Amino acid sequence: MFSYCGNFNDSFGYQVKQREDDAQFNKMMLRFREDKIKRLESTLEGKLSSDSYRSDENQTLKEELQLLRARLDKNPELTRFAIENIRLMDQLQR
Where are the domains of the chain? Predict the structure, then answer.
C-alpha cells in the first residue's frame, strides 16, 4: 500500500509540475504576443523601421519555435504518466 502512495505522490507531483510548466509556457507566449503588438505599433508610428521590425519578428518567431519544440519533446513523458494514472485508477477500483 505504501508503494502505491509513493507512486500516487510522484504522479501528483508531476502533474503539479506540469501545470506550472504550462503556466510558464503560456506566460512566455503571451509575452511574445505583447512584444509583437508593441513592435507593430512602433512601426506604424514610425519609431521602428520595417527592417528592424522584420529582424525582431524573425528572432521572436525563432524563440517561439524553441518553446513549442520543447513542449513537444515532453509529450512522450506525458503519455507515459497518463498510462500510469489509468493503471493506478484500475488498481483502486479492484
Answer: 2-93
Q: Quote the cell numbers at residue 55.
A: 529582424
- pLDDT for 40-52, tens place per residue? 899 889 998 888 8
From the DSSP assignment, how many helices (H) and strands (E) are in the chain? 2, 0
DSSP for 22-51, please give it: HHHHHHHHHHHHHHHHHHHHHHHTTSS-HH
> Mean pLDDT across the stretch 52-80?
81
Contacts of residue 91, defined as CB under 8 A and 6 or more positions apart, other chains included, come to: 4
Q: Could you tell me the pTM of the whole model? A: 0.56
Largest CA distance in the chain: 68
Section 77-86 average pLDDT: 74
The answer to whether 82 touches 11, Cβ cutoff 8 Å, is: no
Q: Are 29 and 75 in contact (CB under 8 A)?
A: no
Q: What is the mean pLDDT of residues 78-86?
A: 75
